[in-house]
Design brief:
Length: 252
C-alpha cells in the first residue's frame, strides 16, 4: 500500500536542472518527500533498491546507465516518471505506452498536469509493461546520436539524402559513393569518418571499401570457394563480403 506521504527519488545528472525539478516538486506537490537524489544511472538503481521510493523521476540521458536501462531493471518495482528533452512529436511513445513523463525545459502548468496524472497512478501498482515504450525511446535516443542526413553531390547538384534511404557506401581512391535505390552521389568523407557517425545497428562494414545498410540486404550467396556476396533490394550490384566480416551474416 502506498504510504500516506509518498516518497520519490530524483535521478538527473545536470545539477541545475535537478535542483530546479526538486524546487518545482516542493511547490506543486508539497506532500511528496524527496527521499534521495542520484546523479547517474548506477546510483539511481542502487538508491531505488535501498530506499524503495514510490516514484522515480528518471532522466533518460544519464552517465553510467541510461534512464532506459535503469527502467528496464526496475520495471514493476517503482512508478517511473521519465524526464526528457525529446520534442513533442516523440511524446507519442510515452502516450502509447501509458508512461508518465516530464518535458525539459520545465513549464509549471504542464508540470502540474503531469504530476496530477502521477498522483492518480499511485493508487495502483507500478507499470510492469514498459518494454514496448522503452524500445521506442531507445530507438529515438540512438537516432539522435547518429547522422540523419548526408550532404552529397551528384554532378552539379547538391543533394540531401536521408541516412535510412542509403543502400550502401563504397569508397575508391578519392571519393565515397553514396548509393540509393534512385541513384548515386558522391561525398568527400572516408569510410572511417562515416562509420563514426552512422548508426551501427543499421550500417555494417562488410569490406574495407564498403558499408551496407542491413535493411537493404536481400540475400547472401556463397560460392564453392567460400567467398560471400550480398544481393540488395532495389540495386543490381552484388557486394563482396570480406572473410573477416562473414560472421555478420551467418544467420542469413
Amino acid at each position: 500500500m502506498t504510504q500516506a506521504r509518498p516518497t520519490a527519488l530524483v535521478a538527473e545528472d545536470e545539477h541545475v536542472l535537478r535542483d530546479e525539478l526538486v524546487s518545482h516538486l516542493a511547490q506543486l506537490w508539497p506532500e511528496l518527500e524527496i527521499a534521495g537524489i542520484a546523479a547517474d544511472g548506477i546510483e539511481a538503481l542502487a538508491l531505488v533498491e535501498k530506499l524503495r521510493p514510490d516514484v522515480l523521476f528518471l532522466d533518460i540521458q544519464m552517465p553510467g546507465l541510461t534512464g532506459i536501462e535503469v527502467a528496464r531493471h526496475l520495471s514493476g518495482k517503482v512508478h517511473v516518471v521519465f524526464v526528457t528533452a525529446f520534442d513533442e512529436h516523440a511524446v507519442a511513445a510515452f502516450e502509447q505506452g501509458a508512461v508518465d513523463y516530464l518535458l525539459k525545459p520545465y513549464d509549471l502548468d504542464r508540470l502540474s498536469l503531469a504530476l496530477a496524472r502521477v498522483r492518480e497512478r499511485l493508487a495502483g501498482p507500478p507499470n510492469d509493461a514498459l518494454a514496448e515504450v522503452l524500445n521506442e525511446l531507445e530507438r529515438m535516443a540512438r537516432s539522435e546520436r547518429y547522422l540523419q542526413w548526408i550532404r552529397a553531390s551528384a554532378g552539379s547538384e547538391i543533394r540531401l539524402i536521408l541516412a535510412e534511404d542509403i543502400v550502401f557506401f563504397q569508397a575508391d581512391t578519392k571519393y565515397t559513393t553514396v548509393a540509393t535505390i534512385d541513384g548515386e552521389a558522391i561525398v568527400r568523407m572516408s569510410l572511417k569518418q562515416l562509420m563514426g557517425q552512422l548508426d551501427p545497428a543499421l550500417f555494417l562494414p562488410i569490406h574495407r571499401s564498403t558499408i551496407v545498410n542491413v535493411r537493404f540486404v536481400q540475400g547472401v550467396r556463397r560460392a564453392l570457394d567460400g567467398s560471400m556476396v550480398l544481393s540488395l533490394k532495389g540495386r543490381t550490384e552484388l557486394l563482396s563480403v570480406s572473410e573477416s566480416n562473414r560472421h555478420l551474416f551467418k544467420m542469413m
